[in-house]
Specification:
The complex is a heterodimer of chains A (464) and B (178).
Chain A lengths: L25 H24 L4 H32 L6 H12 L1 H19 L5 H5 L3 H5 L6 H31 L9 H6 L8 H30 L12 H26 L9 H32 L2 H9 L5 H20 L8 H23 L10 H28 L10 H4 L15 H6 L14
Helix pairs in contact in A: 1-15, 2-3, 2-4, 2-7, 2-9, 2-10, 2-14, 2-15, 3-7, 3-15, 4-7, 7-9, 9-10, 10-11, 10-14, 11-13, 13-14
Chain B lengths: L5 E8 L2 H13 L5 E4 L7 H5 L6 H27 L12 H27 L23 E6 L7 H10 L4 E6 L1
Antiparallel strand pairs in B: 1-3, 1-4, 2-3
The chains are: A mainly alpha (464), B alpha+beta (178).
């Protein structure tokens, strides 16, 4: 092509890659710092308040940290699924990152869930001996789900679903990197199962991923809702809200988008993704972050507003608890910090590509999601207000978990190419315009090959 | 009849890439009062023309803020000051109850701001434009691409500008009259 390639790794205008060799040990440092911070927090708590209910309270801190980290896995799984559902072009470049992050759901996050599974009878009031012997009306009505078998079966089913879909979506994605052009895809039942194959061909891989995404989105919605209900909402077993799963989902994708933005930014700076990125990806990621800022506010406000308006004691008690003590301040932090600050920051079109604003904003999103999780989980137990010492412990556990997740993520990242190598939409992700029908867009196979001289790369990066 | 006033130079291009690169040349030459007309949007044209972000966003932002404030004030005035009615033991004014109508006012006035701002910035509506009576210009809705440089541009000089457009690859250049 005669036109100069603006996105080449050799472009002298690009900032130099950073020397990240010092950061290699960061995951381990995070783990150690996390453990120390947690010990410090627990120690301080024992000194001030004694050791009563220590395991139980530690369990709640663990739950806050776990639900925080689970958000990353679930949000990434959603981004992968939605990429296939919309047959998107631009997100091919960031898809491998999301696939790796989603794969953290199993087994890593499952192992991190185990303490909750073990401590569940202590953590959830409805599982305790008092209510088990003498269930109240709410528990009796919900007995079909809220029993020991139900709790563990649903928990395991959730992780099984997440394992199946993250595993299959990633398997076919990585398989595509080495697939041959035509291949020899399996037929009939084996194809339906989507299990391992020798040489499926590039097209078959995309169709398989699309298939798993198509019904995966239903499994995703149900499993996420069940997870949020069983592990978080069940702390108030008397309470009910149909929006609960959606609220957790909105916050999760919000956190994930901020994280993926930063990871993509680093990979761009390191010239790992530079060839397949253009400004649009950052603009689109920023726009999605903006969309989920609004979506989160919309669903959480709707939940509050409907309960406020109906004014029924069996619903309002949930928010009454959260208006007492310093929880009121936390709710204000969420309204202004989780919504207004990012909303007003992201309103301008150019901010979404501005690293110096987006990087602190992503860190801010992490902090706000932590407050969100704390606001969901702790108030029932800590009526007086935000438990600062346990927040220190929870931050320590988050640091530990993020260290573990980062280690696993980097291992997966090193085991596969950093972006899908042969995705039919890669050309579009690179900012090239491909006007001919392809087999993926529903055109005829033969037409795709003729179309290569139509490839136009606009010289300038702009426009949206 | 006195001589017709000249509006600007119309240069015709036959494909997207030639008009895109011509636009870059016109931009680099420092022209201000000029425009590109194409049958469909061309990716990268904003940058090629050196266009900044539209200012319409500010109009819708101001419209939205006005709408929200108006909604809140209106509901507060009507329910808590002018004609108090106690309903279901709820406070006469609460930002939660007043939010949905205020939110709708935000959207309404935000949309008005966007449309009004767009019309204002585009200097619309207008009844006539010199280009509309040019026969050749009809191609802009079919298969031709045009760059028009107005005579009122400070950089404009008929011979030089014509040369620039020719060098940029236009096969047909003509003067459009007011």
């Amino acid at each position: 092509m005669s036109q100069q390639d603006d996105f080449s790794n050799d472009d002298p205008k690009l900032p130099l890659p950073l020397n990240l060799s010092k950061w290699r040990t960061l995951p381990v440092k995070l783990m150690i710092a996390g453990v120390l911070l947690a010990i410090l927090g627990v120690g301080a708590h024992v000194m001030r308040h004694g050791g009563a209910d220590l395991v139980k309270q530690f369990g709640y801190a663990w739950l806050v940290a776990f639900m925080f980290c689970l958000s990353l896995g679930l949000g990434s799984l959603f981004l992968v699924i939605v990429h296939h559902l919309f047959d998107a072009g631009w997100s091919v470049a960031t898809r491998r990152t999301c696939e790796h992050l989603a794969s953290l759901l199993f087994p890593t996050l499952f192992v991190l869930w185990l303490p909750i599974g073990i401590l569940a009878p202590k953590l959830y009031e409805w599982m305790g001996p008092k209510l088990q012997a003498n269930p109240d009306h709410a528990l009796a009505a919900k007995e079909i789900l809220f029993n020991y078998k139900g709790f563990y079966l649903i928990s395991i089913a959730c992780f099984a679903v997440w394992w199946w879909f993250t595993n299959r979506l990633k398997y076919w994605s990585i398989k595509q990197d080495t697939a041959s052009e035509k291949g020899n895809p399996a037929k009939g039942f084996m194809r339906f199962l989507g299990v391992n194959q020798n040489d499926p061909g590039v097209l078959e891989c995309t169709l398989q991923m699309r298939k798993f995404a198509s019904f995966g989105v239903f499994f995703f919605a149900f499993s996420l809702t069940f997870g949020a209900i069983m592990w978080m909402k069940a702390l108030h077993h008397q309470w009910f809200s149909t929006m609960y799963g959606v609220c957790y989902f909105a916050g999760s994708v919000w956190l994930t988008l901020a994280t993926v933005y930063v990871i993509t930014m680093i990979m761009d700076r390191q010239r790992i993704l530079t060839e397949v990125l253009h400004e649009h990806q950052f603009y689109f990621l920023g726009s999605l972050l903006f969309a989920f800022t609004v979506f989160y506010a919309y669903v959480t406000f709707s939940q509050y507003f409907i309960i406020w308006n109906a004014n029924m004691p069996e619903e309002t008690f949930y928010y009454v608890i959260r208006e007492h003590g310093t929880w009121f301040l936390v709710s204000m932090v969420i309204i202004f910090g989780h919504f207004f600050a990012p909303f007003l920051t992201l309103l301008r079109i150019d901010v979404k590509q501005n690293v110096t604003i987006m990087l602190p904003l992503a860190a801010w999103a992490w902090l706000m999601h932590f407050f969100d999780m704390a606001f969901q989980i702790w108030p029932y137990q800590y009526r007086a207000g935000f438990p600062i010492l346990w927040a220190v412990v929870a931050l320590g556990i988050i640091s530990f978990m993020v260290g573990v997740l980062a280690t696993v993520f980097l291992k997966m990242f090193n085991s596969a190419p950093p972006f899908p190598q042969k995705d039919p939409r890669l050309v579009e992700a690179m900012g090239l315009y491909h006007p001919v029908p392809t087999p993926i867009s529903g055109g005829e196979l033969g037409q795709a090959e003729e179309g290569t001289d139509h490839l136009i790369r606009p010289k300038t990066k702009g426009g949206h | 009849m006195s001589a017709q006033k000249q509006y600007g130079l119309l240069a015709e291009f036959v494909n997207t890439s030639s008009v895109l690169h011509a636009a870059e040349k016109v931009r680099n030459a420092g022209f201000r009062k000029w425009d590109v007309f194409t049958p469909f949007p061309i990716h990268g044209m904003d940058k090629a023309m050196g266009l900044k972000n539209s200012k319409v966003g500010w109009f819708s932002f101001i419209g939205g803020v006005t709408g929200y404030a108006t909604g809140m004030l209106m509901i507060w005035w009507m329910n808590a000051v002018d004609y108090k009615i106690l309903i279901g033991g709820k406070p006469n004014f609460s930002p939660f109850g007043a939010f949905p109508p205020s939110y709708e006012m935000t959207i309404l006035l935000g949309a008005f701001g966007a449309i009004g701002g767009m019309l204002f910035l585009n200097r619309l509506p207008r009844l006539h434009h010199p280009l509309l009576k040019n026969k050749r210009f009809g191609g802009a809705t079919h298969d031709k691409f045009y760059i028009v440089i107005e005579t009122t541009d400070p950089k404009y000089s008929e011979a030089e500008t014509r040369k620039l457009l020719e060098a940029a690859g236009s096969r047909h250049i003509e003067m459009v009259e007011e």
